[in-house]
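Practice problem: predict the structure.
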Amino acid sequence: MNWKCFYYDLGNWAFTNQDADYAANQLAPFVDYIHLKNGKLETSNDLNTGKFDWKELLKKSPKVDLALEYPMDNDQELKEQFDLLKDEVR
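Answer:
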């Protein structure tokens, strides 16, 4: 059997005090799915607020499935975050 299913969870690198950029470089060939979130030790409700340059990290694995994995308070926040993501991956 020759298949893979590996996901990269961006926010977890903050909690483990590891280098998310280094990990992305090393794991890029194996990653199929990325959980996107940002923050420091608490998750932000905005991809652009936090510790990580998520746009640069996505360039390392450009053809993967993506998920937004953080709380949003209302439909407007959800729409804004989806639009932010869609603008980057087009």
